[in-house]
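Worked problem 6 (solution included).
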Amino acid sequence: MRVVVDLNRCQGYAQCAFLAPDVFAMHGEEALLYDARPDDTRRVDVLRAVAACPVRAIAVEGTGGKRAADRVGVPDGA
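Solution. The predicted structure is:
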């Protein structure tokens, strides 16, 4: 799995950091730090973080797309 964050789009809401703190962290009030290649054991947390981003700044490659988010019970647009 590969995480990609559009840092120009990210507004620092930090929902990702709350849902997947092992993968995402805020540095200061606005700068997001993240692990671009998290372990597959973090997959569910990462997909929940992707779905929770209010500005859709996070994408994940290698998860099977939308169907992967559906399998973890994350409604589209959440």
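Discussion: Helices lie at 15-19, 43-52, 66-71.
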